[in-house]
Amino acid sequence: MRGNLRVITIPGSPRTEGNTELLLRESIRAIEEEGHSVTLFRPSQMKLSPCLNCGACEETGECVINDDMNEVYSAIREGDRFILASPIFFFGLTAQIKALIDRCQSFWCEKYLLKRPIPEKPFGRKGLLLMVGGMKKETGFRCGDATATAFFRS
Questions:
Q1: CATH code for 6-153?
Q2: Alpha carbons 17 and 60: distance in angstroms, whole number
Q3: Mapping DSSP to helix (H, G, I), strand (E, B) and coil, where does residue 76 land?
Q4: Where are the domains of the chain?
Q5: Where are the alpha helices (DSSP H) in 42-114?
Q6: Which one, 22, 106, 119, 125, has the greatest CB density within 10 A?
């Protein structure tokens, strides 16, 4: 692919040396070798308040909470590709990445309620979900996939 993609990566694991991190690091290495830029947001090391479900974003498309999410919002608007990476905790994505995803409710409101979606980029906007788990059942993966799909569609 020609051009420089802006890839936003979000590792959900609180463990920086775990299996999820290893998988994400290899993905980032390959992306950077192709000449694309990578921005990483680590929710476990950010000051992120949970969504308050206050309804303000339903009116404006913007979250009223002022914290580290503001930088994430800007990056998402400018990004071309998005990678969510998470171990499976209790049949779903980690609380750290889920808190960040929940705060993206403002994008959903902007797109679906206010009819103002983020403009398409020349390369389109696509997402990749990396999940790591040790359970024998696929249930946790299905639940995590459903959450990530909602995020990617916003």
A1: 3.40.50.360
A2: 39
A3: helix
A4: 6-153
A5: 56-60, 69-78, 95-103, 105-108
A6: 106
